[in-house]
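HUMAN: Would you supply a protein with fold tokens?

ASSISTANT:
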Amino acid sequence: MMSIERRPGGSAVAAVIAGNLLFGTGLIFHAFLYNFYLEALHLPTEVMGHAAAALTAGGLVTLLPAGVLTDRAGPKASVTMAAAVLAAGLAVGAVATTPPAVYAAAAVAGAGSGIWRVATPPILMGLTEPSTRARAFAWNVGLLVAWGGLGTAIAGLTPGWLEHHGGLTHLPAMRGALILGAALSAASVLLFRTLRAPVDRTAHGSAMAPASVPASPELMRRMLPLVGLVTVWMLGPALAAPFFNIFFSREQGLPIARIGVVFAAVNGGWALAVLASGEVARRLGAVRVLNAALLFFAPAMLGLSVAGGVELAVALYFFQGLIAPVTNPLIDQWLLGQTPREQQGLVSSWRQVAADLSGMIGASLGGYLLASSGGSFESLFLVAGAIGLVGGIGLIAGALIAPGR
């Protein structure tokens, strides 16, 4: 087996990205089909909500231990374990028929997803040089975004195909589609196992295996405030993101099928934007592109709060929505670029905790704002834009003070 230090860097990065696409397939199938599966079991909507919460909780609980695991065992071992855990949780969830089993399986799948999210940035950092890093991170996120749209379409077609060509009834077809997604996620193990964990090199060129180093007070003083700024920034987009389908239905009068087409098309545009941002960041630097991108969110949200026509609303939805996928890989590079290799898993776990906390708080606060304003989206978009502006300026200041190595 060819080790990373001898294997061409581009080939190793391509294997990781391909593994990530396979890993994400089961999550895509689960996200789109699982509520329909639970509906076929005649389980109430409360179970659907609790299952989604269990998936999130499983990931959140696992994030900090995943950072320790990544630093001690290496990111290759972590992503391999993540794929096995995720596939097991998804497979059990596809055959679970009672609420406790559904919740337990969802929590296991969430744990696998959490480990993967923590380990992926450090393994990309170790496989790339500064001159190629921005491109690798951008392609990883961009292809995942693009596959999210295409994979959802495939997931939607799979149960019908199994019914018509496999002779299955509705419930077994749903179960078969979910098991197929889990199997594809499990296949990512084969790609992850072809890699070895990245290694550090001394000034004399000798390889050093990664070693776990506890978080020092100096590291915590330096990095936790930056992670806090990331949390504030991400709260702005998280505030509005769960409610755009309702916005286009209620405020713009689009039918559900048309909204799905719009979201799929916009998803493809976001993927292209992420790939383009990687090329720009490779030439200008990740911090410069990050600082520029952070300034676009607030104006787009302000425009959405007063947008009248559906065309303008779709355009502004596209611009506000591309900021998160563009900035996420840049934030990873910025934070991990200031972190010693042996502690990158730990800092990556902090960053993922920031993402989950902002997502959970944002969804709850956004729902409260909508309810308290009588369903008006103007207040929601204005508050999201204001929080995004404050968080963006804070991150820009943080990036100027601590630009990264």
Summary: The first strand starts at residue 200 and ends at 201. DSSP finds 14 helices and two strands in the chain. The longest helix spans residues 130-166. The two ends are 32 Å apart (CA to CA).
